Amino acid sequence: MMINKSLFLTYLYLFIYILLSSGVILYNKWVLSPKYFNFPFPITLTMIHMGFSGAVAFFLVRVFKVVAPVKMTFEIYATCVIPISAFFASSLWFGNTAYLHISVAFIQMLKALMPVATLIMAVLCGTDKLRWDVFLNMLLVSVGVVVSSYGEIHFNVVGTLYQVTGIFAEALRLVLTQVLLQKKGLSLNPITSLYYIAPCSFAFLFIPWYFLEKTGMEVSQIQINYWIFFSNAVCALALNFSIFLVIGRTGAVTIRVAGVLKDWILIALSTVIFPESTITGLNIIGYAIALCGVVMYNYIKVKDVKASQLPSDSIPERMNKDWRLEKKSSNNILDDDTNSGKVNSMSDINVDEEVPLMASSRLSHIGRSQLSSREA
């Protein structure tokens, strides 16, 4: 039985994303925890990640010229890159600091609040409107997280505040990225994103590091294992690229679904790797309630996106157009190598999120990609 190559690559990228995402989180917890590697300096660890990612991106852009830098003016850098980098650095700083106080399992449960935080920030920034169906889903998520928190045996107020603050900082970064970069018509791939954002984030992290961790590192007997820090930074960099591969292959909704699966796997793994991480029945019940709200929210968003993309043509007319587009695309692929590359790249980028996983027909694939390319 022949395995569809496209489907195989999709599942492979999803597997790599789940593996790297889970691995980075567990690796960071192991490095930061006083019970294991004992490097309780989360800002320093985050700066290592940003410094390494920025250096790699610099070599890829300026030395090896893998990708070309975008047209970046000082006005765009000051109004877009700097604020986005500031909130990106904040989300990483607060998120990594939470590992010092609460378990990996509980952190993953708290991350269910991300849609709530994103919606709040989007409403405040004017990019989204509050609707009753979405509000009820967000209320369900919040109730689930509260129940899960109530059932947490080792509940820590400081760690919870750090994690929730990091979630809201990340939500604001996502909204600002949409408002600022898209408004300027600026498109960044993972390499150029790291090229511009990582050094700026490193600079922002230097300020709290100087006041909060510099003195502690000087007086404490910390372990310096360059292989540990190097491999940890490589894993973090690889995770950034894997997210791009998954989104490029499938879409943002699919990576959300994969993220839910990853969270369950991570919760189970964390209890095995870190025995002190205990999960109660109330934890699971609360997290399940929160996930129901998240799934319903994603469903509403997918339905809204599809409704906005639905053309006024009738279904038979749409099928005829899809057939003509596929026939035209097939002829172009046979006749013109340049045009073939363009069609393939557009279908890879703009394909519906569910298409690769549902093994839809090529007719639907071509039709949707052409529609997306016209709307872009």
Automatic annotation (TrEMBL):
Limits of the Sugar phosphate transporter domain: 12-298
Matching InterPro entries: Sugar_P_trans_dom, TPT_transporter
UniProt membrane topology term: Multi-pass membrane protein
One Gene Ontology term, aspect cellular component: membrane
Primary location: membrane
Segments passing through the bilayer: 7-27, 39-64, 76-94, 100-122, 134-155, 193-212, 224-246, 280-300
UniProt subcellular location: Membrane
Keywords from the UniProt entry: Membrane, Transmembrane, Transmembrane helix
Coiled coil location: none
PANTHER family in alphabetical order: SOLUTE CARRIER FAMILY 35
Protein name: Sugar phosphate transporter domain-containing protein
Taxonomic lineage: Eukaryota, Viridiplantae, Streptophyta, Embryophyta, Tracheophyta
